[in-house]
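seq:
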Amino acid sequence: MDVYLAEFLGTTILLLMGNGVVANVVLDKTKGRDGGWIVVSAGWALAVYTAVLCVGHVSGAHINPAVSIGLAAAGVFEWRLVPGYVTAQMLGGIVGGALVFVFYKSHYAVTKDADAKLATFCTAPNLRALPLNLFCEVVATFVLVYAVLQLPDSDPTFTLASEGGGDKIQVGLGSIGGVRVALIVFAIGLSLGGTTGYAINPARDLGPRIAHAILPIPGKRDSDWSYAAIPVLGPVIGGLAAAALFVGLPS
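struct:
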């Protein structure tokens, strides 16, 4: 599988499941209605794990422009790949957001709250103060990217003896990397998600916001473009700050 296709697929899966858990919690007549913040945070973390498990072996499963840019700035990813990765991630964000609408279409139809419908696509602050909202996205994404930069390059393996006592069998634990990233995202959601909804990913926010703008969602409101720059700029700045600290601190 091509690395760009992998990033597109991984980001699509991320948004399908991540925005899917939001839809399950906030839309009317769903099984998960009013499940609460813990459900949303856990759902997003497991969405990250699933996406990493599916495509991590192909592209590294950045599934986030802030991660791709941050890793490139830190010198552990090639800048020439960044435009293709970001484009694939953005397209995956749009498609993933659209798939959530199709999946929960009957629930969008019976939900009257237009703000709730928008929340299933993109983030918004509970208290709108743009400089502080930007700061929150910068800090939360800094934590994500800096933590990702601390992960070891190679995945651990167990070596098992075969039943006949002959050749060794290598059992990979590549998915363990996905577990660690998922736990980081879960921690960010629980601790730092209460102000802006922790986009920490331009593709996670802008892609579905575009989908919200173009889809025939019944009773929808505007797509809140006055806020849209915050969850794009904040994560990029946070990723670059994490890279700067990673490069600047002695190992």
